[in-house]
Amino acid sequence: MVRSYGSDYAAPLLAALETAPSVSVRANTLKSCRPSETADPVPWCRAGFYLPSRPLFAADPAWHQGLYYVQDASSMAYGAAVAAIVERCFGDTANLRYLDACAAPGGKTIAAVEALPASALVVANEFDRHRANILLENVLKEGAPNVVVSQGDASAYARFEEAFDIIAVDAPCSGEGMMRKEPEAIRQWSQSLIDSCASVQRQLVTALWRALKPGGVLLYSTCTFNRTENELNVASFVDGLDAESIDLGLDAYDGVGTGIDTPHRCYRFTPGHVRGEGLFIAALRKPGSHSAGGGSAVGRRRQAAKLSQEASVFVAAHVLGRGDGYSVAEDGVGIILRPSAHDAFVGMLSSKVRMLRSGLSAAVLKGRDYVPTHELALSTMLDTGSFPAVELDYRAAMSYLRGEAMAEVSPALAKGFVSACYGGRPLGFLKNVGRRANNLYPEAMRLRLEDRQLPSSAPNTIIE
Ligand code: SAM
User: Fold this and answer.
1) How far is CA 213 from CA 44, 89, 98, 218, 288, in A?
2) CA gap 125, 336 in Å, rounded
């Protein structure tokens, strides 16, 4: 490594590989959360901060509420990269379409959602089925209503010609930057792994380039150190796709390096140089002038079907601003909200890829009643004052997260749906049936931590 990269780069990295990785979390700005004043900030992410040690996150109701996301500090640079792309390439263009092609578990998707204008649509895709479900859960916890999730090979998006303004390819890679965290990355490492990863990365980027609009930007990243998957691949994109590498200004932060032996604009986050794991980023602009909306793959505007009276009443009562700017549809299962400006496009995508989430599911139909979903409870679209609320203490919150029925939640509350809160914010829904309240926390998300495994109070993650 010293021979290939020089000792200025390699020596701090090699020393850092002998030390423990840092622990960092990013507060959810969509839910108006921020680190407290005493937090130790991540320089390139205003919502990110380091923790002195790793708490048991699963024992923290705030983590289940999506008030923060546990993310490596280097990866938090995605937010700054996306913000720079929007500012430098798209200005105040509304209704941008952003594809995160390799998205699970979703940390960078979430960072991008928070950096993009609220009018943007984010399509998060993941190949691996199990990981796609984790992605779905993380998107749900973040609460943004403008994210859809699909599962499949990202190359399938090549058919949506010139449809996206920004495409993120956080590529599967040899994972050298994760060796401190994942010993498996050390066992798997070989030169042939590097070569095959580099080839897969080129195939993915080349396929997805078709789905990028002229003037659009592809954000390429890996969590590995070698030049083959990084600078050399970027050079092949510049040469083969006529891409232009654009300045994101990330090297303004202490310790963030530029590409090694390359004329192209690339950024390296390297352990020993920054407090975080390995991350390589480059932003590549497609030639041509950019135009908003359109693309050859716009769906037809759908005729809005008339809503049932029950659905209209539900939305008017419980969705903020009555879902202004969102189209409301009933799909036989429940009520789905989608940003109106992207409704036709999402409809078109849904007919061609495997959609796991094609909008915010606000309620599901049970008999003749609309039952509010957990997704709505954690979403920024919930009108929080619209359900009677009960505040749970720490033990009760953990019991709720295990899916346990709650005896006599509050005799003063009317029967019906109740918002279970912790720290004044929604944790999920209960149905108060009188002598007890049924727990509506989704079975698949139930916590498997017993009382005896819990600390005496919630871990302090310094969020306000
Ligand atoms: N962006 C993610 C984050 O920040 O949480 C991490 C992504 S990880 C580096 C790469 C992901 O790409 C893996 O989850 C892997 O399963 C997925 N993947 C691999 N090949 C893929 C393909 N052909 N299409 C879509 N996803 C793929």
Assistant:
1) 28, 12, 11, 10, 8
2) 19
DSSP characters over 95-133: S-EEEESS-TT-HHHHHHHHHS-TT-EEEEEESSHHHHH
Q: Which atom of ligand 1 is nearest to the CA of 131?
A: 14
Give the chain's radius of gyration (CA, Å): 23
Ligand 1 atom nearest the C-alpha of 106 is 5
Distance 139 CA to ligand 1 centre (A): 15
Record the pTM. Answer: 0.95
State if residue 131 touches ligand 1 by the CB under 6 angstroms criterion.
yes
SS3 state at 72? coil
Give how far Cα 461 sits from Cα of 29, 63, 64, Å.
15, 9, 13
Rounded to the nearest whole angstrom, what is the distance from the C-alpha of residue 263 to the centroid of ligand 1?
A: 28
- Residues 233-256 have pLDDT tens digits of 999 999 999 999 999 999 999 999
Amino acid of residue 332? G
Q: How many CB atoms sit inside 10 A of residue 212's CB?
A: 28
- Is residue 219 in contact with ligand 1, taking CB distance under 6 Å? no
pLDDT digits (tens, 9 = 90+) for 361-395: 999 999 888 999 999 999 999 999 999 999 999 99
Name the burial class of residue 136, with classes exposed (0-12), middle (13-18) and buried (19+) by CB atoms within 10 angstroms of its CB: buried
Q: How many C-alpha atoms does 285 have within 13 Å on its Cβ side? A: 18
| Beta carbon of 127 within 6 Å of any ligand 1 atom | yes
Indicate whether residue 406 lines ligand 1 (CB < 6 A): no
H or E, element range at 184? helix 183-188
